[in-house]
Known about the structure:
Belongs to the LysR transcriptional regulatory family. The protein is α/β, with parallel strands linked by helices.
Amino acid sequence: xxxxxxxxxxxxxxxxxxxxxxxxxxxxxxxxxxxxxxxxxxxxxxxxxxxxxxxxxxxxxxxxxxxxxxxxxxxxxxxxxxxxxxxxxxxxxxxxxxxxxxxxxxxxxxxxxxxxxxxxxxxxxxxxxxxxxxxxxxxxxxxxxxxxxxxxxxxxxxxxxxxxxxxxxxxxxxxxxxxxxxxxxxxxxxxxxxxxxxxxxxxxxxxxxxxxxxxxxxxxxxxxxxxxxxxxxxxxxxxxxxxxxxxxxxxxxxxxxxxxxxxxxxxxxxxxxxxxxxxxxxxxxxxxxxxxxxxxx
Length: 297
């Protein structure tokens, strides 16, 4: 089995068409077809059903595709590591970002890192904490920011940078709009607009409210903080969001208010995987982050 065969197989599986796959790979169609046939003969199993001009994965082909992607990813990573050992200041880092910290944390950090290591490139992926942790463990990410930062376990190594307060936002005409601070227990009768339940922020607010003796009435949920602020500004409810998001981005139709409850804060940091060694460029990035946040907090 050759690396080339895996690449061709994955591309044919993606496009479901031999001609389109050959165009994407910039090789002759006959070369792609020949390598797929050789791969099937070597494995002794049919990976595709030929339906007219289309290529449809068999059940075995579907299972093989999952493992082929992992194998190809690891082989490419191994090649990159060898190249990076010759020069650690080159390479590509795949960085995960919860969208609740992407707009504030990322630009300053990447700008500072690029000044020092301009030849290192990046792929950025956004998602919920759960999605990003799964991508890291699966090998689709090299490092991911998270908030809150989980505890260390057999799969991940956390690095905590700082804690951030959550703040209340209300419509500008709300009864609490002129308050300097508010206790969560005083919001028991309010209608809430929050992130979805797969976000840790949702559970942080929900669990804190329940500890105060009430279950928040949630009328809207959104993954986008601009949408949440817009709904609050329209007078549809209130929300609790990280201070970092609200810093410099508070809508004129809303007001930001401090919360008295000490548990309404979250940790911010990164996690890396214990399942493989970090490449030289990833190590540079991690160490840079540790020093950057130590000096700036």
